[in-house]
């Protein structure tokens, strides 16, 4: 079991979503813990609840402050708390580009509509006015494009005859409280989830020219059509519990060097000899650009000349 992911929650209001996240995090086997609740509103109900529950809090009014300065203070508080992720839960301030860039891929938000429908405000009234059959909530990654980052999960809520924005909002909250803890837990678990890790390798391996996937000795394996294999994904091989990429290298010297420099990440894969290196994917900090580089180097090592020639030509542009 990896350590629990550390999450800072940013709030501006009552904090019912913060409460849902917090209580889910206290159930056995939870994937994350809440290390900070921070608010731009000193009177936010969420702060009192967090304090009562023994969670660290930070409050700083944005009034009279420049956006970038206020963002920087929030950022400092999250770092101080050693947060790995930020969960926005009714944080009613737009975060500036520097903050968004710093937390890219590590900041989630819950929004009260079925995105991409109705970004912004007054979502329930707009859904009712449009005659939609359902409203709902979405959890998405935060990007500079307001409410438009990748959607990680949605929950639908039927719009009943006679619903007003208020009655619908109330039911959507129930759905939000189910959705957010689940999506956050799944998201922080991804870097350790063998299926997700294989999918990341697959996407990159299959983007290489003439790549094909097969299954060999129970391992997903990538090769050149009618040619040699250039990558394997070792998944709990002989019960070793590891998920790793096996890629081609120059030989014993390089293998020894890699293992010496980073013995946690690199290992000599059993049965593969000196020409291959095992690269752990499940340490939680995988640099996917480096995996992409390993894959393309490995592909080049086995590809016939006529294919590598095409790649060389393409690389010149
Ligand atoms: C939630 O409904 C959330 O979806 C919404 O604010 C509410 C916060 O309630 N967020 C937004 O509108 C973001 N644009 P809570 O304080 O009870 O969790």
Would you write up a description of this structure?
By secondary structure, this protein is α/β, with parallel strands linked by helices. The chain has 2 domains: 5-192, Formyl transferase, N-terminal domain (Rossmann fold); 194-315, Aspartate Aminotransferase, domain 1. The protein contains 10 helices and 13 strands. It has helices at 16-25, 45-52, 67-80, 97-102, 123-129, 165-189, 194-205, 252-261, 288-302, 305-315, and strands at residues 5-11, 32-39, 57-59, 85-88, 107-111, 134-141, 151-158, 211-216, 219-224, 229-235, 243-248, 266-267, 276-280. The chain has a 7-stranded mixed β-sheet, with helices on both faces. It has a 6-stranded antiparallel β-sheet with strand order 8-9-10-11-13-12. A hairpin with a 2-residue loop joins strand 8 and strand 9. The longest helix has 25 residues, at 165-189. The radius of gyration is 24 Å and the shape is elongated. Bound molecules: glycinamide ribonucleotide. The site of glycinamide ribonucleotide has 14 residues, from helix 1, strand 5 and helix 6.
Describe the structure using short key phrases.
single chain, alpha/beta, Rossmann fold, Aspartate Aminotransferase, domain 1, six-stranded antiparallel beta sheet, 10 helices, binds glycinamide ribonucleotide
């Amino acid at each position: 079991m990896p350590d629990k992911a550390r999450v800072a929650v940013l709030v501006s209001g009552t904090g019912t979503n913060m409460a849902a996240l917090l209580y889910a995090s206290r159930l056995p086997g939870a994937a994350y813990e809440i290390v900070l609740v921070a608010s731009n509103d000193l009177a936010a109900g969420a702060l009192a609840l967090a304090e009562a529950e023994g969670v660290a809090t930070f409050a700083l009014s944005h009034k009279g402050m420049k956006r970038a300065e206020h963002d920087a203070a929030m950022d400092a508080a999250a770092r101080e708390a050693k947060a790995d992720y930020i969960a926005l839960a009714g944080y009613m301030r737009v975060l500036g580009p520097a903050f968004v860039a710093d937390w890219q891929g590590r900041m989630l938000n819950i929004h009260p509509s079925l995105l991409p429908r109705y970004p912004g405000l007054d979502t329930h009234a707009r859904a009712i006015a449009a005659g939609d059959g359902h409203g709902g909530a979405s959890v998405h990654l935060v990007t500079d494009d307001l409410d438009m980052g990748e959607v990680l999960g949605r929950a639908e809520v039927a719009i009943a005859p006679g619903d007003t924005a208020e009655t619908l909002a109330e039911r959507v909250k129930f759905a939000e409280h189910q959705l957010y803890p689940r999506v956050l837990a799944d998201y922080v678990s991804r870097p350790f989830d063998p299926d997700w890790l294989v999918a990341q390798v697959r996407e990159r391996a299959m983007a290489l020219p003439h790549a094909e996937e097969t299954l060999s000795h129970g391992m997903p394996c990538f090769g050149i059509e009618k040619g040699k294999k250039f990558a394997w994904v070792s998944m709990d091989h002989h019960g070793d519990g590891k998920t790793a990429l096996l890629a081609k290298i120059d030989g014993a010297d390089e293998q020894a060097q890699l293992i010496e420099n980073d013995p946690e990440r690199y290992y000599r894969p059993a049965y593969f000899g000196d020409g291959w290196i095992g690269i752990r994917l499940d340490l939680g900090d995988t640099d996917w650009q480096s995996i992409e580089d390993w894959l393309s180097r490995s592909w080049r090592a086995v590809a016939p000349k006529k294919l590598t020639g095409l790649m060389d030509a393409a690389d010149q542009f």
